[in-house]
Amino acid sequence: MDIKEILKNAGIEIPEDKQEAFNKDFHTSYKSDAELSKVKTQLTDTKTQLDAANAKIAEFGDTDPAKIKQEAADWKAKAETAETDFKNKLAEMEVSQAIEGAVSGLKFTSNLAKESVVAKVKSAGLKLTDGKLIGFDDIIKGLKESDAGAFVPDGKPKPQFGDPKGGGAGVHTGSDAVSMEDALKAHYNM
What we know:
The chain is mainly α.
């Protein structure tokens, strides 16, 4: 119900020349039930937010700011260390895989020889640059010179003779065994 109707029902009438001033004053100071309810809801929401903020502030009341800064610095250092460790392990894994790939192209006299060469190459601390192991070829060249027996020789295999005391000439059980006759033919180009 409008305020003018309420006043009229109470026997109060506002003169025509005062109605404009009454409307202006009335609307600046009077609020309807709906407007009052909206303001009360906003006030309740604001009070709830204020209480929550005060509770959160109270939680931090006993906290030492210097301690918080130190803990943040500690966690930052731990994160940086973990990131560095991860990068180092990833680099080690990439180098290890590159070594395994590079060694797979070589021929060894035994698995033990291969494992030994791989271990020596890994212990050399090679770096991987643009997918290439820097210094790998030099290490392999040096190993072929110092421990030629670990590698299957390139080209024609050299003739190997059996031990005359252990079974006579030409007796050899290896995959590259050569009979005495074949060895002589090879030697004299027959």
